[in-house]
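Dear all,

This email documents one entry for the complex benchmark we are building for the journal club exercise. For each entry we list the sequence lines for every component of the assembly. Then comes the predicted three-dimensional structure of the complex as a token string, followed by one or two observations. Please use this as the template for your own entries, and keep the labels exactly as they appear.
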Amino acid sequence: MVSRSGDPNILALVCAWHPLTAADNAGEDGCTYSAKATVVAVECAGRVTTAALLKALAGRPDGVLVAACGRGDCHYSNGNESCEKVVEETREIMRVAGIDPARLGFDLSSDVDGRRFASLIDGFSEDISKLNGRAAGRARAVRKPARTRSGKRTTKRVSPKKKVATKRATGRKKVTPKKKTAAKRATGRKKAAPKKKTAAKRATGRKKATPKKTTAAKRAPSTRKTAKRATAKKKSATKSRRAKSTGRK
Amino acid sequence: MLEETIQRTKAYYCLECGICTGSCPVSRYHPDFSPRLMVERALLRAEGLALEDREIWSCLTCGTCSARCPSLVDYNEFTRSTRVAARKDGHPGVDTHAGTVLAFMELQTKGAGERDLSWIADDLRTSRKGKVLFFTGCLPYFGVVFRDYGVDAVGMANSTIRLMNAAGVRPVVSPAERCCGHDPYWTGDAETMKTLARRNLRMIEESGARKVVFACPECYAMFKLVYPDFFGRLKFEVAHVTEFLAASVAKGKLAFGEMEGTVTYQDPCRLGRYAGVYDEPRELLAAVPGLELVEMPRARAEALCCGSSGWVSCTRVNKRIQLERLTEAAGTGASTLVTGCPKCNIHLACAARDGDIDDPIEIRFVTDLMAEALGT
């Protein structure tokens, strides 16, 4: 587990029974996982609808991960299996809409081991990083001929900042070692990446930045958070449930 | 908020004659719903009552009341703009299909990339640039969501392209296409519609198309009647696929083989009462030798709605409207009910598979039937 500033934004919808217990245990065991992963508990994976997933995707995260209890272990008998169908349908809709279906991850497991949960998040995060890198490469490849083919409109739409960013990226490609460019390419999706960077820079530079921005900037240097901190809030809420769940196991 | 709505829709002309409620397909089964009362509440300036009323989401916006109103009050627009106000006031409707349909429409305003076009059958000819563009609308999405309903929406899009090919046209099908915004617009979300519309207009301009053909009458009505209100006169012609094909038949570019059978035709509200296209679909069906068209008692401007619209109301009441229409269609003695709208097809097919009526009539989209008559 290597910490990287270019970790993708991940939304993890986690069933409140086994997977959330795993997330809690990750905190207790002091495991770390990507700080860009937002863990949201849902009462049951079966409650996650296609519409909810599509709305989550409309918020433009880099990836959405759904974690459900293992087969035969659903507290509400078959929520995990109906969730599987929902994920399948959503992936099909994503394919039609031109979003890579691999950006929607699905995990069926009743393993409450914290380390497994941390590596699940990190593994998905890594897969999405690779996708982001590929998408950025495709965007560059597409943008070049478009610019030469129909001059005016394309040049208008590409803002000067973005142009500089892409030029810089391609320019440095030769000089810097592979890993660095990979990390740079991995920053978010093609359009969001340059903007985010400048926003972060601006925030640290100026004193008058809004409180939200400053906290974001303060947090920015250390991109890893311990799972403990991340799940601390949920702990009290899930304590009784966890006792039930682990007691049952 | 309602004042402007009253002025624009001329609701103040209401004579309280009750023709609207008497003609409303929803009021027939749901006595609490009354277009007359809705207007009355607004005229009494009872804004809170008007906006919190759940029944504004029960309206099908089918246009039967508007077509019959002696005072020419525009009820459809009245419903739509009350919905805009209600949504702003925190009283949105309850989305049907667990919100999936409206969610993928919203997704197309943000997040969605270039559409996948792999659904187009291998033997069909399409192009990236050209004079005629086929606007597929949400058909590829419906293909995923409504597969379990026994509706092949992708097949409808393919059969439309097949017919256009047969008429000697190689249509543009663009991956940059977006939903037309009909459903967000009619459920009070004009902003989503505007975002989608801007993208569509840019896509059409970039494709160089001079004519845009629609399989879905809702997309067609949006382009023909609503987009010009927001974006000025369109720089291209619009045509529903039945209009386009009927013109091709008249010019002798398209001919059909023999096909035995008796069919009846469901006038979609957007194509009929909204856009005024009644004859072309019938001319097209008449162009098939051996095919007999029988009319239902309520046809053309009097046609009964398919029972649902905008993905905001699907209750016992809607089902009863659909069953009434299916029974009426079967009563003509026809073996097939031909629809001019993919959504009518979806709604009626859904009611037919519920098992409330024995041996329901077969329901087919017009291009599916016509492509079969091509003999391909």
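Observations: Residues 143-225, 228-249 of chain A have pLDDT under 50 and may be disordered. Residues 10-128+223-248 of chain A form a domain with the Rossmann fold fold (CATH 3.40.50).
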